[in-house]
Amino acid sequence: MLLMSQIGTRVWLYNNVENHWYIFPDKKVFDKELTIFEALMSFYLLFNQLIPMDLAINLILNKMFYTILIEADVQMVDL
User: What is the number of structural domains in the chain?
Assistant: First the structure.
Protein backbone atom coordinates (compact mmCIF):
# COMPACT_ATOMS: atom_id res chain seq x y z
CA MET A 1 0.00 0.00 0.00
CA LEU A 2 2.85 2.32 0.81
CA LEU A 3 4.45 1.71 -2.57
CA MET A 4 1.21 2.45 -4.44
CA SER A 5 0.74 5.61 -2.38
CA GLN A 6 4.22 6.78 -3.30
CA ILE A 7 3.67 6.10 -6.99
CA GLY A 8 0.41 8.03 -6.87
CA THR A 9 2.03 10.93 -5.01
CA ARG A 10 4.90 11.16 -7.48
CA VAL A 11 2.63 11.01 -10.52
CA TRP A 12 0.29 13.64 -9.07
CA LEU A 13 3.12 15.96 -8.04
CA TYR A 14 4.99 15.82 -11.32
CA ASN A 15 1.80 16.38 -13.33
CA ASN A 16 -0.16 18.88 -11.22
CA VAL A 17 2.17 21.21 -9.32
CA GLU A 18 1.78 24.02 -11.85
CA ASN A 19 -2.02 23.72 -11.94
CA HIS A 20 -2.49 23.89 -8.16
CA TRP A 21 -0.76 27.14 -7.27
CA TYR A 22 -2.83 27.49 -4.08
CA ILE A 23 -1.24 24.36 -2.57
CA PHE A 24 2.33 25.30 -3.54
CA PRO A 25 2.30 29.12 -3.76
CA ASP A 26 6.08 29.58 -3.88
CA LYS A 27 7.44 27.25 -6.55
CA LYS A 28 10.95 28.71 -6.30
CA VAL A 29 11.62 27.10 -2.91
CA PHE A 30 9.45 24.06 -3.61
CA ASP A 31 11.31 20.77 -3.16
CA LYS A 32 9.50 17.83 -4.74
CA GLU A 33 11.66 15.20 -3.05
CA LEU A 34 11.03 16.70 0.39
CA THR A 35 7.29 16.78 -0.30
CA ILE A 36 7.39 13.16 -1.44
CA PHE A 37 9.28 12.18 1.74
CA GLU A 38 6.69 13.99 3.86
CA ALA A 39 3.93 12.17 1.99
CA LEU A 40 5.69 8.85 2.61
CA MET A 41 5.82 9.52 6.34
CA SER A 42 2.20 10.65 6.49
CA PHE A 43 1.02 7.56 4.56
CA TYR A 44 3.12 5.38 6.88
CA LEU A 45 1.44 6.88 9.93
CA LEU A 46 -2.01 6.47 8.42
CA PHE A 47 -1.44 2.86 7.38
CA ASN A 48 0.22 2.11 10.72
CA GLN A 49 -3.15 2.65 12.40
CA LEU A 50 -5.13 0.90 9.68
CA ILE A 51 -3.33 -2.46 9.63
CA PRO A 52 -3.71 -3.39 13.35
CA MET A 53 -7.41 -2.55 13.17
CA ASP A 54 -7.75 -4.79 10.14
CA LEU A 55 -5.97 -7.62 11.94
CA ALA A 56 -8.24 -7.30 14.98
CA ILE A 57 -11.36 -7.46 12.81
CA ASN A 58 -9.92 -10.42 10.95
CA LEU A 59 -9.28 -12.29 14.22
CA ILE A 60 -12.83 -11.67 15.45
CA LEU A 61 -14.34 -12.89 12.19
CA ASN A 62 -12.13 -15.99 12.22
CA LYS A 63 -13.17 -16.83 15.78
CA MET A 64 -16.83 -16.51 14.80
CA PHE A 65 -16.38 -18.66 11.71
CA TYR A 66 -14.50 -21.41 13.57
CA THR A 67 -17.04 -21.38 16.42
CA ILE A 68 -19.86 -21.93 13.94
CA LEU A 69 -17.95 -24.78 12.29
CA ILE A 70 -17.16 -26.46 15.61
CA GLU A 71 -20.75 -26.18 16.83
CA ALA A 72 -22.06 -27.69 13.60
CA ASP A 73 -19.61 -30.63 13.64
CA VAL A 74 -21.34 -33.80 14.86
CA GLN A 75 -18.06 -35.65 15.50
CA MET A 76 -17.06 -33.07 18.15
CA VAL A 77 -19.78 -34.31 20.56
CA ASP A 78 -18.46 -36.11 23.64
CA LEU A 79 -20.81 -38.86 24.84
Answer: 1
